[in-house]
Design goal:
Number of strands: 6
Strand order of the largest sheet: 1-6
Helix content: 40-55%
Largest sheet: 2 strands, antiparallel
Mean pLDDT: 89
Bound molecules: heme C
Order of helices and strands: HEHHHHEEHHHEEHHE
Distance between the termini: 18 Å
Shape: extended
Strand content: 5-15%
Amino acid sequence: MFSRIAPATKRSVQQAFKPTVQARFASTKPHVTEQPKQFAAVTAGIVGATGLAYMYADSELSANMADEGLHPPHHPWAHSGPLSTYDHAAIRRGYQVYREVCSACHSLDRIAWRNLIGVSHTEEEVKAMAEEVEYEDGPDENGEMFMRPGKPSDYMPRPYPNEEAARAGNAGSLPPDLSLITKARHGGEDYVFALLTGYMDPPGGVEVREGMNYNPYFPGGAIAMARVLFDEVVEYEDGTPATTSQLAKDVSTFLAWAAEPEHDERKKMGMKATIILSGLTLLSLWLKRFKWSPIKTRKIVYK
Ligand code: HEC
């Protein structure tokens, strides 16, 4: 390295007729800042960031707002902060609403009884709830299928045996499985809440077909599901007043949990990772300064 720099420096010494010249290394700051390049880089950065912001900010808009439905207002959910967890009492109440109201039409295929253990119910409660449902099992030694009481490892029972039966029971419309509904709709739990509380008379000039119900939050405005939540339709065991909006909030929290049961654990892991990684980053910055200090602070003088 030195042998390669030295001859070049020597030449410059001869050219400049200076008694001493400092050698400059790649790690030191150049005297002449390259203005045009910096300007181009900053401009490219600004254009890129604006483009990305535009692309993502606009992604919730549709060409026709009626197709998209009224945009649901955002509510301050207990779990929406970066470090906040679900309101587990609300999950428990929401499960009760799902069981007593929604489960008459909607399945919840991806949730097993055992998933509720430690989240909203104790193991004994879950075992007792599962045992109330009969599941088909088998075959036994005679090749026969038989019915047995449910176990925590069984999945939530479905209201209908198949899609055709579900459609037949709902005038041709299919009640979707609710396991991932907050992930499958724009607005997530805000949408579910707005949908459940948004039923109203159709405005003047809007005709809703027989058997359909007007709901501005549903794309198109006419939904086959009638309003299902009314004040006191469920009696909460913890004594919470069961207003329509309370019921909707609790069942939306429950469905948000069903779609993302790992949510609390994920945030906890994220916090741990952030703490550990930022500690390691500081350590490696310090180590870099330490290792580089002899190189950065040396001065080489040629005579
Ligand atoms: C009487 C049967 C019935 C009950 C009870 C019921 N639903 Fe529905 N639900 C339906 C039907 C049918 C649809 C399909 C509507 C359509 O496609 O027009 C539906 C659709 C939905 C949708 C999807 C809307 C969309 O954007 O596609 C959600 C979310 C929903 N229901 C939530 C609930 C919740 C939460 C409850 C309990 C509080 C509930 N439902 C109770 C029949 C029911």
